[in-house]
Amino acid sequence: MKTEMKTSYQTTNFLRSEKKLQEVISRLQAYYSHTITNPQWTVISILSRFVFLRNLIKLLSRTPKLNHYDLHKSLFQEIDVDRVVYSLNKYGCYLGIKLPKIIYQEIIMFAMSTDCYGNLDSKCGFLYSQKKQAEKKHKAPFSTATYFNIDILCPAIKRLSNDPGIKMIAAKYMKTEPIFTDARLWWTFPVNKKNYDVSKTASFFHYDPDDYSCLRFFFYLTDVDLQSGPHICICGSHIKKKITQIVSLTQRTDEEVLNSYSHEDVLTICGEAGSGFIEDPYCFHKATRPLLKDRLILQLRFATRDYGILKSSKNPYLLKNIFEHSQ
């Protein structure tokens, strides 16, 4: 009996070690690929993990010219920019931004009339209304579906990315001129745990070293409750991390991350369609698995420069509709 237990324990440890090794190899391969694309990003993404280095570079950066942003032309004229920036500095996130109805409707119309791509596969394009047929053709359910090239194809999203109110918030928080780097629009679907792809849906606590100063704007385009895959953010974690969480090359377990913070720091963000939030990507955050309803979310990314990394753009000639591709 003891021998069986010992063997089982050794097997479990071996599998865990093998998984961690695979994670390290995968992470190093990703870094190698990004380094080939832009070596500067690799240097920044390593150094910027340390908050004192981020703050030092900010001090040496060019001060933004805030008078360039005419808030009277913003879609978000009611928002208190200073209050938003205070919340971002203290907590790393802000709740309370909301899409104008006309912009929300335009994005929804775009999402319903444009192909999204199941599990990020450029050969698995389908209209949202065709999801069940597409999964049948694919012979497997999709955890997620992403739209590509949206900042070019959708005028409403392009308008948001250039909005002076959004840019004013980014400039004041980042303490330099913000550069819009990418827009992402994607679905997450309620599938069983076995078919849910954690890596493709980022459903584990992580942070994103986009740049030494960066900011993301999110907008829910469907109603999101606890059953619809709400976003979770750990408030204050943009400036407070253990050294092992800064230099680790392996995925952190939820338990490991949550044990480092108080229960009050964990913010689960629900909201009606059109509601949004702003987040410093250095905060620990994650998606959660939808249990009952599909979730559609829009993300706008800002940084000090565009490194050409982690873009949601694709060569249109490589994008294929799943039904046309199979013929």
Can you describe this structure?
The chain contains 13 helices and eleven strands. It is globular. About 2% of the residues have low confidence. A hairpin with a 6-residue loop joins β2 and β3. α1 crosses α2 and α4 crosses α9. It has 327 residues and is an alpha+beta fold. The strands form two sheets. Strands 1-9-6-11-5-4-2-3 form an eight-stranded antiparallel sheet.
How do you describe this structure in short?
The chain has helices spanning 2-37, 39-47, 51-60, 81-91, 101-113, 131-138, 150-153, 155-161, 164-174, 198-201, 243-247, 254-258, 322-325, and strands at residues 93-98, 116-118, 125-126, 144-147, 179-188, 214-220, 231-234, 266-269, 275-279, 285-286, 295-303. The strands form 2 sheets. The protein has an 8-stranded antiparallel sheet with strand order 1-9-6-11-5-4-2-3. Strands 8-7-10 form a 3-stranded antiparallel sheet, with no helix packed on it. It has 327 residues and is an alpha+beta fold.
